[in-house]
Amino acid sequence: MSSVAVAGSLNIDLVIRAPHCPQKGETVVGSTFGMAGGGKGSNQALAAARLSAKSHIIGCIGSDDFGRKLKNVLTENGVDCSQLHTMKNAPTGTAVITVTDDGNNSVIISQGANSLLDDDAMMKAADVFESSDAALFQMESPAKTVAAGLKLSRRHGCKTFLSAEPPFSLPAEAWENIDYLILNERALSFYAGRKQHKSVEEMANEILMRGVKCLAVTQSAKGGMIFVKGGDHFSFDAFNIRAVDNTGARDAFCAGFCVGLCEGMPLKRAAKFASACGALACTKIGAHPSMPWRHQVSALLGEAADDEYEL
Length: 311
Ligand code: RIB
Hints:
Shape: globular
Number of helices: 11
Oligomer: single chain
Number of strands: 13
Helix content: 25-40%
Bound molecules: alpha-D-ribofuranose
Largest sheet: 9 strands, mixed
Structural class: alpha/beta
Strand content: 25-35%
Strand order of the largest sheet: 5-4-1-8-9-10-11-12-13
Radius of gyration: 18 Å
């Protein structure tokens, strides 16, 4: 069994379905409302556990009902919450999400306690990093903390993964501590310096020059591309599914990619496995509810579920 430490955000997502997202000054009459666990860190930790990894969350919640709900769901799903800190001076993070009829979403987050995840929390998690095969970060935590976590987890022998969403500037020294970077096309142009006329390949190569070992660019329904330092690159396909809500799909992809590589899958196989995880996450409304289980991924890949993975 692989072991993954996920450091990042936990939110309660407030989700309304609507025909379209409101324009400035517009009120849109939506349809269903739902509330579910979310936040990129907690989605990835939950997905890693459902994919049969030993999963740990390193993060901050408020001392409130939202925080307790998130901790309960993660614990029930087997995520180790020993490094989940309850803060007295900030509420649990919240996301307000509009999901449109074509399955796309727009999100506003109130960071709350997520903004308090600091270097000290990374230091306290040293034992978790020491016992984990990989550490996975996102950008809903302070960039300085992400940089410190990447450095520390690498020092403790973890493969390091950064899902750099939403895109914010990273301290320059952080790049060389990233083994696997996962970006969508919007984040790719942000980190490559918004060079409009450059191809995906050119932007990817610029990022690899900063010291990143492998870059995965996700392209939604088109699948994506993997670029490896030294020149190799290949494309992977998306699965053909009927998307009802893509919230959390990239989190499921990241968890799948990380778990696959920690289990020793070759890069192409890990990309296909991750793509199946992302596709399954689009088939249900809500982030936590849609994080896929291992047997569902095996079924989509047309494989018999290995005994080890039966849940
Ligand atoms: O990646 C999806 C997540 O982004 C949602 O669950 C929401 O909380 C935001 O953090």
